[in-house]
TrEMBL record:
This is Glycine cleavage system transcriptional activator. The keyword DNA-binding applies. It comes from Ruegeria arenilitoris. The keyword Magnesium does not apply. Residues 8-63 form the HTH lysR-type domain. Keywords: DNA-binding, Transcription, Transcription regulation. Belongs to the LysR transcriptional regulatory family. It comes from the Bacteria. Pfam families: HTH_1 (PF00126), LysR_substrate (PF03466). InterPro entries: LysR-type_TF_proteobact-type, LysR_HTH_N, LysR_subst-bd, WH-like_DNA-bd_sf, WH_DNA-bd_sf. One of its GO terms (biological process) is DNA-templated transcription. GO terms for molecular function: DNA-binding transcription factor activity; sequence-specific DNA binding.
């Protein structure tokens, strides 16, 4: 038993690499470097005396030995996770101040925190929407969830939460007026709805309609929530997505007009890198990363 548990971190690295078919994605999930994952796998391969992966550039594939090992390792790690989380949910306590981008806070994060607090009733989470993130530590925020471009440059441990991939969407009524029989959009008749500037629409047009300058038109709203409300009211076409606009798309208040997608932004989560980090904040961070893993892998 003791000899096997010496390789627990290596087994975690192996399981993540096998699940993602990628050392790089495993490294991102575990918040370590690519070389650390590679070394962990090498340690296991030397211990077993057999290759666990075949390498194909940036992609890895399980060998027969790896395929035999994977389900048992995954099951064992899940058993350990479930046991620890069961204790934490009953015993862990504390207060966590989360500074979050306003649209994310209202459209997605609030509901996630409500569910988290139901699972961890002794942890209190104070969600504070802020366009400019609060400082971590020093009695201010314990966690930042914001655009990757607005994260502190140093002193924090950052992890990707999920990307926002935008596509044109509008009300069914507006769609019927601006989309032709062949499915093409008459951009000259389509007012655009922008949030936080025109840059995202400019990126979409540069990628897919480079001859058009329609991105220069339309009203700019200072917050995505306002922009979504405007689009639902029929003011114009918005770059919607499947996460923050989930309710509007599912209810058919907004409908997709075009299959072409542009990467708008990444959201990240950050904790202090030093000893000021709260265990409850780390529990929340890990829970959110687990909840959003499918968005990072697509």
């Amino acid at each position: 038993m003791s000899r096997s548990l010496r390789h627990l971190n290596s087994l975690r690295a192996f399981e993540a690499a096998a699940r993602h078919s990628s050392f790089a994605k495993a490294a991102s999930e575990l918040n370590v470097s690519h070389s650390v994952v590679s070394q962990h796998v090498k340690n296991l391969e030397e211990w077993f005396g057999a290759d666990l992966f075949t390498r194909h550039g940036n992609r890895v594939e399980l060998t027969a030995t790896g395929r035999a090992l994977m389900p048992q390792v995954a099951s064992g790690l899940q058993t350990l996770t479930d046991a620890c989380e069961g204790i934490l949910r009953k015993s862990q306590s504390g207060a966590v101040v989360v500074s979050a981008e306003p649209a994310l806070a209202s459209l997605w994060l609030r509901k996630q925190i409500t569910e988290f607090c139901a699972l961890y009733p002794r942890i209190e989470v104070d969600l504070r929407p802020a366009w400019t993130p609060e400082r971590l530590g020093d009695g201010q925020a314990d966690m930042i969830i914001h655009f990757a471009t607005r994260m502190p440059a140093s002193g924090v441990e950052k992890a990707d939460l999920f990307p926002i991939d935008g596509y044109p969407a509008a009300t069914p009524q507006l769609r019927d007026r601006i989309v032709g029989a062949r499915g093409t959009i008459d951009w000259s008749a389509a007012a655009l709805v922008h949030d936080n500037g025109r840059e995202t629409w400019q990126k979409w047009f540069a990628a897919f309609e480079p001859e058009s300058d329609a991105w220069r038109t339309g009203r700019v709203y200072s917050d995505l929530s306002l922009a979504i409300d405007a689009a639902v009211d029929g003011e114009g076409v918005i770059l919607a997505d499947d996460i923050l606009c989930k309710q509007e798309m599912a209810s058919n208040r907004l409908v997709r007009l075009d299959e072409r997608v542009v990467r708008c932004v990444w959201y990240q989560v950050a904790l202090p890198r030093n000893a000021a980090r709260k265990p409850a904040a780390e529990t929340l961070r890990n829970w959110l990363l687990d909840r959003t893993s499918e968005f990072r892998d697509r």
